[in-house]
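Problem 12. The chain below contains 354 residues. Write out its predicted structure in token notation.
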Amino acid sequence: MINHQATQIMALIRSSKIVNIGGRPVLVPNPRQPATSRTYSIQIALAFAAIYLVWGSTYLAIRYAVETIPPLVTAGIRHSVAGAIMLAWAWARGFRPTRANWISGIVVGALFFLIGHGTLHWAEQYVGSGLAALLIATEPMFILVLAWSMGQQKISRLSALGLGLGVLGVALLTRAELTVKGSSLLALLAVLTGSLSWSAGVLISPKLKLPSDALGRTALPTICGAVMLLAAAGLTGEFHATHWASISLKSILGLAYLIVFGSVVAFTAYTWLLQRCPPALVATHTYANPVVAVFLGWLLASEPLTMRVVLASLAILAAIVLIRRGERTVAPREVFPASAEATSVEATSARECA
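Solution.
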């Protein structure tokens, strides 16, 4: 019997179905046929297209949605539906949140969605979607400064240069608004406040008892943030001020797009990519999203695309590249667990996916 098994194993080795590694036979899966390989490549390309293009287009969808739907109501409905879908999905897969998970979800939900998304939705009543996207792109800069102030990160020369370029880009974007009195300047400050709040959430979330399940880890803060957004909408009188019969088709379609494509479709593609590609590669969507948002705002909403906006865009994108490269040259202090890189990427991307 033993000799027969040995003969079978040697036959498999000769047929390349088993390889001999270190004296131990290892089963080799059947190689993909060319058609299967092409299908896999297409799936990868479509998934990246989703997180590059769909998430970049959500800023314009927000602008359309808040034209006739109050901003906190828009954000509250968006995240209620998207969060419920993701929680039901995770629940069907066996996810069961604990009390500690819910408490952590409340903290992260307040930072990410109540403040982070609430300010963004409100601000897009007064500033262009492309401008808002470029200001949101300052998150890596806020994360670096906050991590440095908390003793979690050193700032390298490359990162310092990136911070300088980022400040220059923001200054170029806001220069024309500094002389404007009224909501426009407040809206710019609101977007930056939201970016700061989101950055704080990214740094705090690895220390909280969030679920280990990736879908549940996004669903709980989304649901908690949605409840707080709806409560804030009620306290500020937005529900009373909403003229439901006057909501335009454009706003309805914008809200539906945010829920279906911005949250469910793009998030599914994102989590699928994280299982197959390095987190640093998946995180490259942070470079593409502002460019897509500025282009779509100019193409579809007649938002101005001036030389000032182009230069500011280049400065902010260069700042992101320098900061990310600078982070690789400095060994971070042992504060987060080994999985912090993937967790940080997921948290940073949740702004677009939820």
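Discussion. Residues 53-353 form one domain. Students who got a different answer should revisit the alignment rule from Section 12.3.
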